Amino acid sequence: MSRKPLMAGNWKMNNNIAEAVVLAQEISNQYEKDWPDKVDVVLCPPFVDIKPVRTVLEFDKTNYFVGAQDVFWEEKGAYTGEISVPMLKDCGCTFCIVGHSERRGLFGETNEEVNKKIKALLAGGIQPIVCVGESLSVRDEGTTDEFVCAQVRAAFAGLSAQEVKEAVVAYEPIWAIGTGRTATPEQAEEVCAAIRATLAEMFGEDTAEGMRILYGGSMNVGNVAGLIEQPNIDGGLVGGASLNAASFTALIEACM
Ligand code: PGA
What is the pLDDT of residues 67-98, one digit of tens each? Predict the structure, then answer.
């Protein structure tokens, strides 16, 4: 089955509103209108920038998606500081990153919380981009595939094939994030193939074949081609290189 590539920019905690509007405008300026037929593109700015970024894209009729970097699973109520699925939809989000290693590592997010967030997003019609990935010590122990596939099982526990088919998985080895040290295409492909095999065990071959699996971790203009030509890698989740319009556009073009 051929899967449409997806290139997602994770801006992390970068860009105030003015800066976000400038970057979105620069990215939009390079857009060609036949690109959305070949690749899905998602910009994931900080919460406060989502609406302004969406407005730039809408004004330009740039057919890119906007996503969030996190969400809370309850719809509304006394959850100080949190943002719900309906709120994200109201801002025009169609994607949301979940379980990023920075959230797991710095903010103590657990597999159970990741699972609740994914369920809330899928129920609300937002496509989760579910991040999984091992630390350097897990890789050195030689247990990467087991570790990552256990994260995948926990993330999608209790969901049906029908429900998960809109979800995207991002394999992001922690030792490659923001370090300039990328996994080799062979290393990334091995884990992405194991992730797809796990999805097939859980939800059947057809569903697993239709789901997109991204690579993330120091993806850049120099290494993108070798990564996305792998049979089980369907695009990228990009941090640093998504903060510059020229480099992000080059990554988009590499998917076509
Ligand atoms: P990086 O970040 O491309 O800067 O390594 C990727 C990510 O954390 O999603």
Answer: 999 999 999 999 999 999 999 999 999 999 99
User: Rounded to 5, what percent of the chain is helix, strand, coil?
Assistant: 50, 15, 35
Beta strands of the chain (E only): which ranges? 6-10, 40-44, 65-68, 93-98, 127-132, 168-171, 212-216, 235-238
Grade residue 254 by pLDDT with cuts at 50, 70 and 90.
very high
Q: What is the pTM of this model?
A: 0.98
**94-103: pLDDT as tens digits:** 999 999 999 9
Which residues, including other chains, have CB under 8 Å from residue 171's CB and lie 6 or more apart?
A: 132, 133, 148, 188, 191, 192, 195, 213, 214, 215, 216
The dihedrals phi and psi of 237, each to the nearest 5 degrees, come to -115, 115
Provide the 10 A C-beta neighbour count for residue 106: 9
Point out which residues pair with 238 in neighbouring strands: 9
Q: Which atom of ligand 1 is nearest to the CA of 219?
A: 3
Here the tokens at position 26 are 């620069």
Q: Single out the catalytic residue among 109, 134, 172, 189.
A: 172
Site to probe by mutation for ligand 1, drawn from 172, 179, 215 as the one with most ligand atoms within 8 Å of Cβ, is 172
